Amino acid sequence: MLRWTGANWTVLCGQFRSLLRQSSQFSNYNFREYARRRTLDAFREHQKETEDRRIQELIQDGLQNLRMMKRQTVISQFYQLDKLVVEGQKTGKQTGSEGNIVRQKDTGWD
């Protein structure tokens, strides 16, 4: 049923990898995860597409999205912020004895 064979398949796989690679370049966690999720969702949504004309339109849309994502990642790297807690950056000091870890944050201006 799928017509994603030959040249179309090669182009789509390359485009998929490029979009995922570019989405990982965002400095902001939320933008990075949104771009990754949107890429995965778009490819899943259209995986059963069989019409050649529609597949070509989707390839062109993907190229436009890739160009837009490249511009946005450059802009996002100008405005880097501290990492979020979900990104695994640890703050404060870890102290404790006997395997007990107490997280302490430095006092000061918050």
From TrEMBL:
Q: From which domain of life does this come?
A: Eukaryota
* Pfam families assigned: Complex1_LYR (PF05347)
> What segment(s) does the record annotate as region Disordered?
91-110
A GO cellular component term found in this entry reads: mitochondrion
Can you tell me which residues the record assigns to a coiled coil? none
The residues covered by the Complex 1 LYR protein domain are 16-68
One GO biological process term is: iron-sulfur cluster assembly
InterPro entries this protein is in? Complex1_LYR_dom (IPR008011), Complex1_LYR_LYRM4 (IPR045297), ISC_assembly_LYR (IPR051522)
UniProt similarity note: Belongs to the complex I LYR family.
Name of the featured protein: Complex 1 LYR protein domain-containing protein
